[in-house]
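W.,

You were right to be curious about this one. When I first looked at the sequence I had no strong expectations either way, so I just let the prediction run and decided to look at it fresh. Below is the sequence, 163 residues in total, followed by the output.
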Amino acid sequence: MPGHLKGDNILEGRAATLELLGTNDLEIAYIAGLFDGEGCVFVEHRKTRLQDGLSISVKIGMTTPEPLYLCQRIFGGKVLLHLTRKGWHDSYDWRIYGTRADLFYRIIEPYLILKKEQANLAISLHSLCYSKSPLRHKLAEKITSLKLKNQAINPDEQNGNQR
C-alpha cells in the first residue's frame, strides 16, 4: 500500500499476534515486568539417540499464583504448587518450553530491562537448537554467564544510583 512504512506492517503484525493470544500491550508489559523480576531463562540439554539439542524454557516463580494464571492463559504451560516447610509461604512456578518459550520471549522482549539480552540470546538459540552449529553452545554459555552476572548486581548500581 502506498504511504505505509515497513515498521507499520511490523506493528500491525504485533497487534494481530496479541489479538490472537487474547491479550493487549498492557498485560504483556505487566508480564514482562514479572519476568524481569521473578523469571528465569533456562537452557536445557536434550540428548536423544538421534540428536543432541538445546531447548529454551521460561520459568516465573512467586508466592502469589494469580499473575501466573494470567501467563498461563496467554502463553499456555502449567502452574505448579510447591509446598514448603512450616513457617514459609508455599510457592508457585509457571513454565513453558521450546516454541512457546520462543514466542514468549519475542512478545515480551520490547518491555524487558534486566533480562533483555538473555531473552534475545534465547531467541537466537531456539533457531539453532537442533543444528550442528558450534554457536548454539556459545549462546547457552552466554545466557548462563549473564544469569550469574545479574545475580551479583546491586539494583541501585545497575540504575546508576550509588551510595
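Here's what jumped out at me. The chain has one domain: 6-153. And, maybe more interesting for your project: The CA atoms of residues 155 and 161 lie 9 Å apart.

Coffee later to discuss?

I.
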